Amino acid sequence: MTIYALSSGPGLSGIAVIRVSGPDTKKVLEYITFSPIPAPKVASLRKFINPRTKILIDEGILLWFPGPESYTGEDMAEFHVHGSKAVIDAMHSSISCVEGCRMAEPGEFTKIAFQNGKINLLKAESISDLISSETEIQRQQAIKVMSGKSSDKFTSLRKRLLKILSNVEAKIDFPEDDLPVDILKNIYLELKSIKEEIKLILNDGRVGERIREGFKIAIVGPTNVGKSSLLNYLSRKDIAIVSEIAGTTRDVIEAHLNLDGFPVILSDTAGIRDSKDEIEKKGIKLALKRAENADLIIIVVEPKNVDISKFLNELSSNKAILVINKIDLAFDKISKDIKKYNPIYISIKEEKNLDELIKILKENLKNKFISTEEIYITRERHRINLVKCVEHLESFEEKKNIEDFDKAAEDLRLATRYLGMIVGKVDVEEILGSIFNDFCIGK
To answer: What is 211-369's CATH number, 3.20.20.80, 1.20.140.10, 3.40.50.300, 3.20.20.70?
Structure first.
């Protein structure tokens, strides 16, 4: 089957790129250009014609990439046309006239590239991350993964495990031969080394996931202290409704921010108080859960109601910033006991000290995102497979007797399999859908 799709972004643009890939790509070019196939990888000016009506659609650039030297590994072509909806629709309609052609599904071009061995799963994921990156640090991380450093690390670990597995299986296949003592000793030493290396990779503070998904900051506090106003101020737009009526915010409201290149998901939550309203109680429950799962919590109170009793656990966990808003109203009423929590005194209404709060937020982000170790994990999928790999390595270590080598070999096979699943060295059909469905159509 030959697939086609708009690869550039939707909407009005100067240039639009329509990509075609598959065995009938040549036929598509012949039908739409009525001219010879251009030289490979050379931009050629062509007229694009509707094969049914013979009416000119547009004039643009044609690029021809014969397989296997193409992105997908198949015959592939790109039509560079003017980016109006009418031109794009006419091109799609014309390509669909060619027998064996259909519209591509999300991520299908990259999925074919993976299946044809042009890229591994890590690179496929990094391509998706690069396309969706919104901040500089996200772009840098995606490029690092694309460069292959993570793939090389996991592939190297897997090869070391396979070498150990071959020694273990040799003992199973030839039980009458004694495995030299030094080989047995080296097996356990090498396994220990691999296990410790993986544990070091896992002990990364989830920096890679934070960069990819965004640093989670929850704004919590009692009702009517200015939480929604703070969300609106930091996001520079009116996202949340601001009202003097207590309990206005009942659901979690999110804003995605870019603070000095760091991706942030800022959440405004329902005011914490005793309430008999069932909907508000659900909102308060969501607020507490969001605070529990957040990387950083901004606890907002006001001078007239400096009740932090419900947030003492958070304040002692070093992941909370205490903010006292409305200092323009009653600064002198703040208790001296509060000062030990190093609160930031602000007035959102008069925009006082908000620059200090933003400075502290940025410092927190830098501290969380900076790591002395190389970051190899960017998705939960990677972490889960590494954890399972370690579990099977530890299970192998528990089997000390030669008689247990059959079971021990199975632990090694499974450990190797989980490492392989990260880069796609084994059958991973069950996870392909979830990975490539995140792509845009045309990539």
So the answer is: 3.40.50.300
What DSSP assignment string belongs to 25-69?
HHHHHHHHH-SPPPPTT--EEEEEE-TTT--EEEEEEEEEE-TTS
Say whether pTM exceeds 0.85. no
Checking phi first, is residue 261 left (phi over 0); if not, alpha (psi -120 to 50) or beta? left
Alpha helix locations (H) across 67-148? 85-96, 108-115, 121-132, 136-146
User: Token match 């501290």: residue?
Assistant: 367
Q: How far apart are CA 324 and CA 129, in angstroms?
A: 38
From the options 3.40.50.970, 2.60.40.3230, 1.20.120.430, 3.10.450.50, give the CATH code of 126-204+377-429: 1.20.120.430
Percent of the chain with pLDDT over 70: 79
Residue 379 near residue 211, CB atoms below 8 Å: no
Spatial separation of the C-alpha atoms in residues 291 and 207, rounded to whole Å:
19
Dist CA 103 CA 34 (whole Å): 22
**C-alpha angle with apex 247: 241 to 248, nearest 5 degrees?**
20
Give alpha helix (H) positions in 220-295. Answer: 227-235, 278-293
Residue 22 is given by DSSP the state S
Contact 20, 32 (CB under 8 A): no
Q: What pLDDT score was predicted for residue 428?
A: 47
* Average pLDDT of every residue of the chain: 83
Are 2 and 98 in contact by the 8 Å Cβ rule? The answer is yes
Nearest to 288 by CA among 216, 226, 218, 241: 218
Rg of the Cα atoms in the chain: 29
Model confidence pLDDT, tens digit, residues 122-177: 999 999 899 988 888 899 999 999 988 899 999 999 999 888 887 777 666 555 55
Instruction: Count the residues in the chain.
Output: 443
Is the separation of the CB atoms in 141 and 129 below 8 Å? yes
Q: Which residues contact 114 (CB under 8 A, 6 or more apart)?
A: 120, 121, 124, 424, 432
The closest of 415, 419, 416 to 120, measured between CA atoms, is 419
Neighbours of 136 (CB within 10 A): 13
Cis peptide leading into 10, omega within 30 of 0? Answer: no
Nearest alpha carbon to residue 248 among 260, 258, 256, 240? 240
Residues of the chain with CATH 3.40.50.300: 211-369
Helix (H, G, I), strand (E, B) or coil at 225: coil
